[in-house]
Each structure stands twice: as structure tokens, then as C-alpha cells.
Amino acid sequence: MCLKLTERGEDKVVKEEMEQESLNGTFDGRVMTEEQMETLRKQIAIYAVLCDQLVFLHNSLSSVPLLSSGMNSMGGGYFDPMVASSSAQGMSTRHRWTPTSMQLQILENIYKEGSGTPNPRRIKEITMELSEHGEITEKSVYNWFQNRRARSKRKQPQAPTITSGQADDAAVTTEERGSCEDSGGFESYEHILFPSPDLGIEHLLNRDKFMES
Amino acid sequence: MCLKLTERGEDKVVKEEMEQESLNGTFDGRVMTEEQMETLRKQIAIYAVLCDQLVFLHNSLSSVPLLSSGMNSMGGGYFDPMVASSSAQGMSTRHRWTPTSMQLQILENIYKEGSGTPNPRRIKEITMELSEHGEITEKSVYNWFQNRRARSKRKQPQAPTITSGQADDAAVTTEERGSCEDSGGFESYEHILFPSPDLGIEHLLNRDKFMES
DNA sequence: GATGTATGAATGAATG
DNA sequence: CATTCATTCATACATC
């Protein structure tokens, strides 16, 4: 309904301007009366409010953006050309960082010797080094170590106690994830709304993207 | 925020009109050039899209019981995998609290205005209010503010170190490049909505939580 | 292209 | 507060 409202308002404004113009005859731009201006102002204000609500709702519904195809390459958008695996994937631009084989190797090395010390300051150094082998952010480096440690810890507990027959542990590690059914696509809204908070508004104009498969 | 942006754009339009008007002298209404009209048209179009999304979102939400009145409780809708082992209805929802959209909204609001005051007594009040929108404990509220502050602090320090080599910082910030230059005709919308290069959609989303290295 | 798995990222909670 | 841990979510990738 909102859309309809908009179109209507727009058309109306334009049309009335036209009339105004013809009345004056001499002017070659567009015209609007004070009243029309006020109307427009109000309409915009309404949209502004709606926009706010939208944003608000979006925030409420979790986050994590989803990329969108035609996006630019912004300042630090990452794109990993190194990935050997033939990525039949569309150039799904930015989102989740994917370590390059080189980066992964380096990280793995540091992790081994670094005595599992996620060093706060060290992160920056590591990031520096890794950046030479592909896009990377400190945050990603941080996350990587965080995850690495956490996951290696969850896998160890089974090794130490290999006493007798025990094959159930395997299921515990990476199984539960699958149990997350979503209630009616609840989290899918974020994809529908803002592909990415970083991206410009332009994406909002690509309606087709909304239901993107 | 949206409102502010809007007002700005509006003012601009009005002002330029004034100029136009004076040139013609004879007209007493407002004036807009074809170009300005186009700009306005685009802005409205954008709002229309946003509005559309809002409606869409709203509809979607309405069909999701989770967000309706009584829902609440934790788990954004997913079940606790741990419970699986227990035989009967071991509804032990004893896991990590997950704020409902409403709760999050309220919290975010309080956070914004509350000037980041973790007020000891205030917590209780907030908890009270939030409890009307879902399961919640003072502890959780406390934690939320704690985390919120800590995480938002990581993002703010956006040192505009454009002076010397910013090679090492390039990868650090993954945010600000949000609304930057780019190709395509779409980018123009950004300027319309966000006159200031500093303003990006991310600001609208209020997502200052990032960098955490 | 549906299903499964590995893993980057987000965030509530715990610890110093 | 600053850091870290733990759990969960979402997505890239592999598989059939």
C-alpha cells in the first residue's frame, strides 16, 4: 500500500507542477506552490518515519548482511582470486572471508608455534603479513584464532579417552548444527532487507533481489 | 537518522528553488528544475522501496507466531539440541538468552539515550519492562549492556589516518568503505540520500559493533 | 539442486 | 572494564 501511495504522490506532484508551469508560460523549469511543497515535505517525512521503522525492525531481527551481486568493489571489499577451487559461484562479492591457501598455511603455522596465544597486538602483525596474500581484516584473524582454538578443543576430548569402543563422540561435534530448523524463515528477513549495511541504497532498488533464491 | 537526512535533502531542494525563482522574478511559488525533479523522484522512489520492504517484512512477521504476543521465551525459535537426549518433555530451555526483537529494540533505545549508564538500579527497571516482551533476567540485561558497550567501542576509533602510509590500516576497518565511490548509475542514489560521505547506510542501522581484534 | 559438512562471524555469558 | 570462552547462525563448498 505504501508503494501505491508513493506513486500517487509523485504523479500528483509532477502533474500539478506541469500545470503551474503552463500558467506561467515563461519558465522552463518545474514549479511547485508553497502548498505543494508542504505536501511533499509531509510525504517525505512520512517515508522517513517508515524508513526508520524499517531500520528498526531490521535491527531487531538479527543482523549479518548478505551480499548482493552487482556490488562495487568498495575500498576493502574482499574478493579472493586465489581460491583454487573453480568457483562456479557467481562472483558473490563480499561477505564471509575465505582464507587463501597461503593465508591458511600461515595461520596454521602461527597457531602451532604461537602456543595458542591469540595475542592482542600480534593480531595486527599477522594481519599485515596475511594481507600480502589476500584480503584480510584483523577481525577475521581474530575470529580465526578464536574458532580454531574452540574447535580444536572440542575435538580433543575424544582422543585422550580412546579406551574402548566409542564411536558416538563423532556425532556430537558437528551434528547439532543441523538441528536448527527455522521457524518459517525467520532469519531470512535480513537477506530481504539490507543485503549489507555497508552497501549503498542502490540495492534497495533491485526488487528482484528480494526473494533471491 | 532517516529523518535528518530527509530534512537535509529537502532543504537543499527548497533553497535551489528559491534561486531559480529569483531569476524569474515573476513567480511566487516554488521552483524546481528538471534535474531537481529527477532527484526528488529518485529519492521518493527509494523511500517507496523501503516502505515496500517494511510492509513485506511486517506481513512476514505477522505470520510468524514467534513475534506475536505471547511468544517470547528464548531461543529465537530454535530448540535446544541438548534436550534431545532427555526422554520426555525436558523443556529445559536453560540455554543462552536470546533477546526478542522487541527487547532488543528497547535495549537499543535505552542504550542510545541512557548515555551508557549501566545504572545498577536502573537495570531492575529495564528488566521489568523487558520481561513483558519475553523471558529475561537482570543478569542478562547487565551482560547486554556490558557487551554492547565493549563491542561498540571497538568500532568508533576510526582514526582518519590519511596522513602517512595507511597500508596497514587498510584491512583493519571493514566498515567505513560502506558508501564510497563506485560505478554504475545506482551510486547516485547514495548522494541523494546521504549527502555526507560520512553517512552510510550503516549509520542508519546503527551497527557500530565491529572490529574486535 | 537438495543435503551434508566445514568454518567465518555474531553474541550471550564468564573470567581477570 | 578488558578478554576470553562457548554456543549458535549463516554460508561456502562438497557430494550425490
From TrEMBL, chains A, B:
PROSITE patterns on file: HOMEOBOX_2
Q: Region Disordered: start and end of each range?
A: 149-184
* One GO MF term attached to the UniProt entry: DNA binding
Its predominant location is nucleus
Which chain regions cross the lipid bilayer?
Answer: none
Q: Which residues bind DNA?
A: 92-156
Protein name stated in the entry = Homeobox-like domain superfamily
Organism this protein belongs to? Arabidopsis suecica
